[in-house]
Design brief:
The structure is a single chain. The protein is α/β, with parallel strands linked by helices. The chain folds into two domains: 356 residues, Rossmann fold; 126 residues, no CATH class. The protein contains 15 helices and 16 strands. The strands form four sheets. Strands 2, 3, 4, 5, 8, 9, 10, 11, 15 and 16 form a ten-stranded mixed sheet that branches. The protein has a two-stranded parallel sheet with strand order 1-14. Strand 12 and strand 13 form a beta hairpin. The longest helix is centred in the middle third of the chain and has 22 residues. It is globular and about 70 Å long.
Length: 500
């Protein structure tokens, strides 16, 4: 379990001991949606020489109990291409993760008509920060709705209502699901093809919603975008006694060590080959050794430590002193300790410095610090000046929603891969995009591969999943070469998912 405060507030995976999920129980008073209070503006987005006109609606939707009591106000931003029949236009509901994150990252980083200006490798420019036209916006393919769950963005529980009633896996699924159902009715979008796009814990939400929307409202989804997914927390959560993530993280160690030129010449020469070797070693030799624990002989421990050093760039003695289990927090510090640098968690390409070079864990994530200021400034400026939202309360980028309620999975791990499997079995038309960054430690790419392979899908269903890989981190779209490829992949995915 992450112990550093940074990891409790970052937008990536935040996990406790959790479990395989069950079908959410029907609450006594399930949230219902009510009146909207919105602003309406018009805009243009340029795709090279082509221009797309759109209307933007931003404001609130009331969540109400069955008795009509207002429980919360959900803030959203809705982009709709103008001059077309909505029946011919797909609609995509978008959200980030945390839990506790607003939708700012997808909104201002990749999908929306404006994006934060960054350098081509994703490094922030000096403040003040700028918003620019997003030529990779998804509006040429789909209308977009960005949702800020309760306590994030401008969304808040109603007066005298406890926000805790929305802070949990089931509670979150029910409130966001209710929003989607009402939105489809309010804006007459039931006849549109429907997609969900989530990032990080937002993929947990999207997978949960794929089943909940079908079971609760009979809303069948055409496609899911799982951007940097976390589906089974048992494959992601480091703690003593759960060795599986230690094996699944190793290929990410190899990727980071390759990027920082800490591997041997033969591995450094071929990135794809290095990853393939590391994956094979992780899933075979390393997993077997981890299961053995102290049954592993001393000579075998020595041999294993040598191989782990070979694939990680971390010396053999450090692996031996760590019981052959170097967790990610130590890795961030150790990989470039001699250089006086630490590496990033959300994106291992980034480096930072601590007070000193001692210690076993880092004091902050330099890859998160790189995006925190630019995205916070940009969303506030954009909402005020272009969407005409005049709010006195702050737009909460990352909310403290802890403790997040996982009562539905007591003494187990949350595993929404099973929700997704159930939804795909009932809806054979459901297509799934899975996107992973090689340098992402929040939701490592190999854990996503493992989770999909353990859904045990039939061949005719498994072909409905496509996995894409990128050469940066958790928010791979901040890296311009990946942003370009991401847009190409998204376009082809929409074409495939909407093919009759």
């Amino acid at each position: 379990m992450f112990k550093n405060l940074l990891f409790l507030i970052s937008i990536g995976l935040i996990s406790n001991a959790m479990a395989q999920t069950k079908v959410p129980a029907e609450p006594k008073e399930q949230p219902q949606a009510g009146a909207l209070q919105v602003t309406a503006t018009k805009g243009k987005v340029n795709y090279g020489p082509k221009v797309l006109d759109y209307e933007a609606k931003a404001g609130y939707l009331d969540l109400k109990s069955d008795t009509g009591k207002v429980l919360a106000k959900i803030f959203f931003t809705y982009y709709q291409k103008t001059g077309v029949d909505t029946k011919s236009r797909p609609i995509t509901f978008c959200f980030n993760g945390g839990p506790g994150s607003s939708s700012v990252w997808l909104h201002m980083g990749a999908l929306g008509p404006k994006r934060v200006l960054l350098k081509d490798d994703g490094t922030a420019t000096p403040p003040p920060y700028q918003n620019i036209n997003n030529e990779y916006c998804w509006l040429d393919k789909t209308d977009l709705v960005f949702i800020d769950p309760v306590s994030t963005g401008f969304s808040r529980a109603a007066s005298k209502e406890s926000p805790k009633q929305f802070h949990g896996f089931e509670e979150d699924i029910q409130s966001v699901g209710s929003f989607i159902r009402y939105f489809l009715s309010k804006y007459e979008r039931w006849g549109s093809a429907k997609f969900l796009a989530g990032e990080s814990y937002g993929t947990t939400r999207a997978a949960g919603l794929s089943k909940f929307l079908q079971d609760q409202y009979r809303i069948y989804i055409n496609g899911l975008f799982l951007i940097s997914p976390v589906l089974n927390f048992g494959t992601n959560d480091y703690y003593v006694g759960n060795d599986l993530p230690r094996a699944l993280y190793l290929p990410s160690y190899t990727a980071a060590a390759w990027y920082h030129k800490k591997l041997s010449p033969e591995l450094q020469a071929d990135f794809a080959k290095a990853l393939k070797e590391s994956e094979d070693f992780a899933i075979n030799s390393y997993t077997t050794a981890l299961i053995k624990g102290d049954w592993l002989s001393k000579p075998d421990q020595e041999k294993l430590a040598e191989k782990l050093a070979y694939y990680s760039g971390i010396n053999k003695e450090y692996w031996l002193n760590s019981n052959l289990r170097v967790d990610e927090n130590r890795f961030y510090k150790e990989l470039r300790r001699k250089d006086g640098l630490t590496i990033g968690r959300l994106d291992a390409r980034f480096t930072g410095t601590d007070l000193d070079n001692a210690g076993e864990s880092v004091s902050y994530d330099p890859s998160f610090s790189n995006i925190d200021g630019p995205f916070t400034s940009s969303i506030n400026d954009y909402l005020q000046k272009e969407l005409l939202i005049k709010e006195e309360k702050p737009y909460t980028i990352l909310a403290n929603v802890w403790p997040w309620n996982y009562n539905n999975v007591q003494n187990k791990f949350l595993n929404v891969a099973e929700n997704l499997r159930d939804a795909m079995a009932k809806n054979p038309a459901l297509k799934v995009y899975v996107g992973s960054g090689y340098h992402d430690f929040a939701t490592p790419y190999f854990t996503a591969k493992y989770d999909i392979e353990h859904m045990f899908l039939r061949p005719e269903t498994k072909k409905n999943i496509r996995h894409y890989f990128y050469n940066s981190g958790h928010m791979y779209y901040i890296n311009m070469p990946d942003m370009i490829q991401f847009k190409k992949d998204v376009d082809s995915f929409y074409d495939w998912a909407l093919k009759p």
